[in-house]
Amino acid sequence: MRPRTEALVGLGAMALLGVLAAVVADSHRPATPADIDPSTFVAGPGGARGLLEATQRLGIEVRRFRERPIRLQYLGDRPRQLLVILDPSMPISAPELDAFVAFNRSADLLIAGPRAERLMRCFGYRVKRSRFDSVRVSGASATSPRVDAILIPTNERVYTDSSRLADAAPLTCRVPAYRTTTTLLTSPRGPVALRLERQDNDHAVILAADAGLFENSQLRFTDAGTFALGLIAGHYDRVIFEEYHHGFGAAGSLAGATFDWSRHSPWGWAVWQLAVVGLLALLLGAVRFGPAGPGISRRRRSQLEHVRALATALTAARGHDEAIAAIVRGLRRRLAPAALRGRGDWRAWLARLNDRAASPSERVAVAKLTSFTHAGQPSSSVLHAANAVEDLWQNLHH
After folding, report:
1. Which single residue of 13, 149, 177, 289 could bond 209 by disulfide (Cβ 3.0 to 4.6 Å)?
2. Domain chopping of the chain, boundaries
3. What DSSP string runs through 3-33?
4. Residues 6 or more apart in contact with residue 152 via CB below 8 angstroms
5. CA triplet 124, 127, 128: central angle to 5 degrees?
6. pTM of the full predicted structure?
7. For 147-161, what is each residue's pLDDT tens digit?
8. How many angstroms separate the CA atoms of 57 and 40, rounded?
9. Any idea what DSSP says for residue 214?
């Protein structure tokens, strides 16, 4: 078997194995991951797209915020708006905590999930997770949502975040005083959702220990939908969903998203394996064994070859007599002195050339060429005239 054929067979076998591995791996994965982040871009059971669409159906303006929190200061143009932060998958840095707290001076906040606990601490509460099974909220109804966390007051007046102490100064959040504290949702273990009315301004903070209350599956099959929409309907004109900390920042690119998909998908791994195999096959096929083969030698065309090509072109245009005349004039330009080129009738010049022929072969060549100069020549005479010019040229230079 030839080396190139062996490489193609190996490449095909690797492609088949890669596709088979991707199919087998994909068949063992659930259709939708259960632990997916509650983002409004996700329509699966663990996403929060249902909350966004339901809010739109209520006639409320909805916006996805995909920039850094420092840009929130440019959204304070509505008196009744709500910023929703659902269990961010990326950690919130200390400067970003400060930006969220500052935005609460011009808008309400809804903070949910244990991964937002650092932001909740700026408002005096933390999340306590259950070590065992979840419990139902607000009674024993079959449609009551289940939660696995509650809210615990920190009883701190000042919260210090020193997570970036190595490269920045620690952030200090002063817990605001509240005019009223309303329990929105409770469980046998403690409060699950609270509404905190600030005393220093007219805005509020809504805290939810479990972000599952806002997921698509809970909104569809439990009373969590009524609870979530009850927090929004009739209270706000615009709802902003924070998506930057779910990895949907506006600074992303298609190439980056494709690369990230290829690292987490079995199909992506199959593509990478095929690329590596193809690169190896290309490198192996590019190795040269033995000396380099000789190059193709190309010689320049002579002037007579150009004359014959011109004759062929004129023959195709059916200018037979003109073609023969051009051939004879070209011969005169090469043989006559520079002072006499292009002067007089070429037929008379051809007659004088016959008189000056020094050898019988030259006279035969001139006579042959003269026979093709008569009017009404067929198309084959053009090629014959070109050959006669070549014979005459060779006889004159030998």
Report:
1. 149
2. 49-250, 252-281, 303-396
3. HHHHHHHHHHHHHHHHHHHHHHHHHTS-SS-
4. 125, 126, 127, 128, 190
5. 130
6. 0.58
7. 999 999 999 999 987
8. 15
9. G
